[in-house]
Amino acid sequence: MFARLLYESFRRQKRRKLLAGIAITLGVAVATAMIAVATDIGDKINRELRSYGANLLITPQEDTIDVEIGGVNLKPPSDGNFLSEADLPKIKGTFWRNNILGFSPILPVNVPVSAAGRSQDVTLLGTYFAKKLSFGKDQFTTGVHNTHPWWKVNGAWPADDSQDVLVGDHLARKLELHTNDSVDIAGRNHKVAGILSTGGPEDEQVVAPLGVAQQILGKPDAVRRVYVSALTKPEDALARRDPKTMSGELWDRWYCSPYVQSIAYQLQEAIPHSHAEQIRQVAQNEGTVLSRIKGLMLLITLAALFSSALAVSAAMATAIFERRREVGLMKALGAGNFAVAALFFAESTLLALFGGLIGFFAGSWLAHRIGRSIFDAQITIQPVLFPVIMAIAVIVTFAGSAAAIRRAVRFDPVFALRGDA
Amino acid sequence: MSGNSPMSAGVGERRAAVPHTSMFLRMLVRAAVLRRGRAASALLAMIVAAAVATAMMNLYVDVQAKLRKEFRSYGANVVVVGKDGAALPSDAIGKAEVVLGGRGLAVPFAYVVARTANGQSVVVAGTDFERVQKLDRWWSVSAWPSGPGEALVGMRALPVVSPDDKAFDLSFQGHTAHMSVAGTLQTGAAEDNRVYLAMTDFLAWSGVQPSTIEIAANGSAEDVNAVVARLTGILPAAEVRPVRQIVEGETRVLGKTRATLYASAVLIVLTAALCVLATLTGWVFDRRKDFAIMKALGASERLVSSFFAAEAAALGAVGAVLGFVIGIGIAAWIGRVNFNAPVGPRFSVLPVVLAGSVAVALLSAIVPMSLLRRVQPAIILKGE
């Protein structure tokens, strides 16, 4: 009998059930999409923040100090210590290798550059543009493409194994150089692959493949410093502690968290005779910006959950309110309060489950669309979200129905049947 | 509760002596008063929708400004340097501040290469410590210099300049400065290799004028470009350029955040509107008896339609105003919790919310009305 009542209720009141069902589906869909986006936004914004460039710098351990003003190094280039280029792929062998999005070695040398009769002493930076490297079985591409995304080239990026160079746009203007011109650097001819614009000191410099700089300096394998771009976790109290004072378990936790400090420590371990340091301008500010955006999304998600909960409640209350006459009839025929309430709750649960199921998939699809169109990346939906969302749907529907059901049950059947309802 | 007669509007209509307009008003008011329960639930849905819409729109407009402020902690976004390394005119910093007009911070830097007591080269910079503290908040400094003769020494320069952490001598073109170490500086970048002096000490010792001004200009990318353009005009001897690393990073992250916020706002407002539509449609549909009685008593189709439309519009307007107030509260709370600064109320949002609410309310009256119009009043009154 109960099952038949339930079945007939759905069969005969299609419009009302549809309205309530749509409300639940919509509410759940928005809740799912918002939760999925909010849980994933930290990772997505973290990646966007990498457009500020490298947040770690590796230098030789016993290095002399740099004498550099406005990007011009006044120290003799052969002075001081160097890192070994052959060690660099080991960066991808550290514990947090998947968090390291890229690195680029830099080797500055001072060279005379001349073209079309003009000559000038400038700094030439040797680096990777998009170099293919491998560590173990891992193949990866790295270079200034990853670590200096604001560098713009008018022309083409040189190949990493070529002799072509990029000329900073201020320098190019002074020397009247254009793409595909040839330029004399330290007595050898090089082709200008493109004109580089960075808004920084590189605008006055020449940027060349690392091999070219090593050749000029006469030190194959030498690298002065390495910029590393890594996804990190915002700093907290543990991150700031000195690892030397930590006990075993605490140390493990510190070592296995992607703090900028622990990644620096691991880089230092991986590369012999090196010193790794966070670039505080980039690393320190990431945390604040990230936590603000995450906090914002969290609060908005709360607002979205609240409004969809209210919407579902309102829809359920309306649906039940409309059926007081039915309640009167049931009670007049001898149904107890419990039987009436049970019927309504069963209906609500069924609606919540159906609406929740459809809403969850619609919401996942929405989250997917948002991720694609805004971040150009997949938004991962945690499987654990499904039971959570279903539970929320049932609870909210129940809570929304409870008041209306109580009122409906208390209603005097005489009024209801007389048509005053 | 609303067990009272739904016919009260009809009862009122029998008192025909009352002028037409006041009758109309009375029907509107009585309908809301007598059927409080239904009207309240419809109104509640309206308020929630309007509140959420207001909060989202307020946030969407204000969050940019709030986030921009956070992004200023990345430091300078505009740099002014003398052409070919020449010093800037001595009034450059004053001019830069006039251009900024209080909406930003300008910090001068002067550089020389000096020699330490044992003949090593080191870069010595002169600056305004008070301003640097505000501009470069990521500088990790053990103690800022507070008086003349005190220097801030970079972490890597320290062993070269003052290995025993005591006072040290710097010489430049025959002039020697005797300084003490106030604190150490760590940034992970070029600053670690330098010694920083207060500008007055620096000028008295070396006589070299500032060659660089680092500027943190507030506002959008257009505002920053405007500052760059005006500085270029006012300082012809200097080269003014935006720091692309900072400007582009900010634009990118801000753009993505805004887009996400926009998507969320659209989703939430849409859901709220649809739910209002559902609730109000039910509400109007539920009052088909009033509709039938009015028609049976001889009301014209137009009168009945305008009555229901007016009722829905009034509900929408009241809901919008109440929701607007609540929404402003929500936005302000989110601002306080997340940005430590309240999101100010934007009254330009009110007409949008009002128009939207009334439109949704009218729409939800029209749908059931067009359904009911086809039905004979007799059938409705019979109880079908």
Write a structural description.
The complex is a heterodimer of chains A (421) and B (384). Chain A contains 13 helices and 16 strands. Chain A has helices spanning 2-12, 14-49, 144-147, 169-175, 210-217, 237-240, 248-255, 260-270, 280-321, 324-332, 337-375, 385-410, 413-418; strands at 56-60, 68-69, 72-73, 83-84, 100-115, 118-127, 131-135, 138-142, 152-155, 165-168, 182-185, 188-197, 206-209, 222-223, 225-230, 274-278. Chain A starts with a helix and ends with a helix. Helix content of chain B is 58%, strand content 17%. Chain B contains 13 helices and 10 strands. Chain B has helices at 8-14, 20-34, 36-71, 92-100, 129-135, 158-161, 199-206, 221-234, 244-286, 288-296, 301-339, 349-373, 377-382; strands at 78-82, 104-116, 121-127, 140-141, 150-154, 168-172, 175-186, 194-198, 212-217, 238-242. A 6-stranded mixed beta barrel of chain B has the order 2-3-8-5-7-6. In chain B, strand 6 (168-172) and strand 7 (175-186) form a beta hairpin. The chains are: A alpha+beta (421), B alpha+beta (384). The interface between A and B is large, with 82 and 86 residues.
Short characterization:
Chain A has 13 helices and 16 strands. With 421 residues, chain A is an alpha+beta fold. In chain A, strand 2 and strand 3 form a beta hairpin.
What's the SSE blueprint?
The complex is a heterodimer of chains A (421) and B (384).
Chain A: H1 2-12, H2 14-49, E1 56-60, E2 68-69, E3 72-73, E4 83-84, E5 100-115, E6 118-127, E7 131-135, E8 138-142, H3 144-147, E9 152-155, E10 165-168, H4 169-175, E11 182-185, E12 188-197, E13 206-209, H5 210-217, E14 222-223, E15 225-230, H6 237-240, H7 248-255, H8 260-270, E16 274-278, H9 280-321, H10 324-332, H11 337-375, H12 385-410, H13 413-418
Parallel strand pairs in A: 6-13, 10-12
Antiparallel strand pairs in A: 1-15, 1-16, 2-3, 4-14, 5-6, 5-11, 5-15, 7-8, 9-12, 10-13, 11-12
Chain B: H1 8-14, H2 20-34, H3 36-71, E1 78-82, H4 92-100, E2 104-116, E3 121-127, H5 129-135, E4 140-141, E5 150-154, H6 158-161, E6 168-172, E7 175-186, E8 194-198, H7 199-206, E9 212-217, H8 221-234, E10 238-242, H9 244-286, H10 288-296, H11 301-339, H12 349-373, H13 377-382
Parallel strand pairs in B: 3-8, 5-7
Antiparallel strand pairs in B: 1-9, 1-10, 2-3, 2-6, 2-9, 4-7, 5-8, 6-7
